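Hey, I'm writing a tutorial for new members on how sequence and structure tokens pair up, and I'd like a real worked example in the thread rather than a made-up one. If someone can provide the structure for the chain below, I'll link this post from the tutorial.
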Amino acid sequence: MNGRLKQMQAQLRDFQMQHMQFTQAEASQIEEDMQNIQRDIDYLDSNVTRLREEEKEFSEELSGIQKSISDIAKEIAESDKRILQLKSHMDGLQQRQSNTVTAFGGQKVLKLLQLIESNHGRFKSPPIGPIGAHLQLASESWSVAVDCACGGLLDAFIVSCHKDLQVLRECAGRVYYNNLRIIVYDFTRQRLVIPDGSLPTTEHPTVLSVIQSENHTVLNVLVDQGHAERQVLVRDYEVGKSVAFDHRMRNIKEVYTSDGFRMFSRGSVQTILPPNKRPRPERWCSSPAEKIAELKNEADGIQRTISEKNAQRRKLVNDRSNLEQKIANLKRKREPEERHLMNKKVQLEDAKRATAENNRHAAVDTTELEEDIKEEKNNIEQRELSLQKTNVKLSAALREVNDRRMAFKTFMDSVNEERLHFSSANDELDLVKRKIDAAQQEKTHYEGVMTTKVLPDIKTAEAEYADLQQRRQEYFKKASIICSESDMEALSHVAGSTPEQLSAKINRLKQRFDQESRRFYAESIDDLRALHDKKERKILRKQQLYAGFRVKLNSCQKALDLRWKKFQRNAGLLKRQLTWLFNEHLGKKGISGFINVDYKSKILSVELTMPQDASRDTVRDTRGLSGGERSFSTLCFTLALHGMTEAPFRAMDEFDVFMDAVSRKISLDTLVDFAVAQGSQWVFITPHDISMVKPGDRVKKQQMAAPRG
């Protein structure tokens, strides 16, 4: 301590000498230099600020021009898309000029109709279709609404039986019309009469009321398959909402507006679907030529607009180039000024630092020396406290040694008890051996009884059986003289009956024969036999059909049993895999667990064994864990499920809530390693610190700024 004190006194003398060497002239010179530097800084700062403001104005103007160029490019792209739609619409209308049927299936439907005509002999009844070609609208204003309501039903064909369906499907395949919708319907059925109580209670028209057709089958199909009588048509959007949702009218399935909106309600859920973004060409247009001319004029107008927009874009591109050149010139002027300004600021800071250093040396006191002395005393006290803690740890270690000695003694006592149990087990083994010897003696005794008493009786019974068998053969020969064996086989159903019973049965059969003869006296025996043979053939066919169904049913049952076994095996393997993955993640924190899945009760339970449970037998339900342990176990369970599923991207939010620092670090490392190893895209969101996660090629960190109060 004396050496330390002498060193501090020498330092105090050095500071006093430095204070004496510092003169007033040097301080004045430094102050003058600082004022000159400050004037240079103010001048440079004003120049840099002016250049930045000019550059900012040009940048804002440049961003406005770029936005205008982007908007014009979007408008041009939308116009090009609209022109393509118009051209497609015009192509469809031009096809309709040659044949109106092409509106409902294109060129494929023409080829299909030609093929149907060439194969008309294979159909029981000629197919009807496409349905849209057999319809006429009362007003073209409803064309879009009816097209949206009926949809693909307008392209469908109608046949009368399943055989015609197969033939038509074959014809459609030959012309590559693979997605053709075919409806089987009874052509002989009259037009359906819909009661007034089944129609919507509204003044607005329905799809069925605005379409006309000379074929009743077409209208019946639209009612049965498309519910045309319950689809209401309205003029505009607001009226449609009122009809569909406000009044809650009966027998209304859907409401369609004239521009293609679809509205319906199912229970308390109200749904509004917008028109199709790619509408079909108008399939009920009465004057395609006028519509084509109108569409062509619209396309020409759009093309002129595109030319004007391209001219505007070229002008804006030139303006953008000029502004970029001006911004580059300003930047070249600003950067040297900024570097000069930074140098001046550094010089000013150095001068201020030198002045502050001199002032600090000039105002020296002994406060620091006193603080150093106090610090030395504090160090001595801390060392004494550390020595006391070491003594406490030593006493705890001695107590632990004594506890382990007591545990070893308890273990030796348990070993001695096991030795006593082993000796008692040997006594029980000797007793079992004695019982086995006694059972062997009883077996020998009963075998002797079997030889001396039971076997002679069996041999006597066998001799009596042989005698009876011989007597039976003699009686059989005598009976065969009276009645042949073939007659007896024909009467096998009366075996065991007495003569009185046989006589009574013969009388009943005679009476029944007389009754049947009186009932069917007009029919001959040959007719009855023919009827009998016909019934037998029908029964045989049914039996064969039943046998075929039975074979198919057995095959289905075998397939079902095999699938059920595979399903049970897969369920067991998945449960086992889930437990393994769960334990793999839990092991990073020394925890083990088990997942119990009861498929019958539809219950999944998680049980954990914590590392502090020395017996390793204490199983805890997750509801009995702390918040951090529950969060970590839930995270491990989620990762186990993610490991068994496939998805292109996944996300987890606030996965580390209620965790301590150690659990949070283990969780973050586990999540990052798992996500990198799996290969899919992951998004983790957490309000906690993520500085411990190291960014890499496949790991990106983004941190949002804290909210301002």
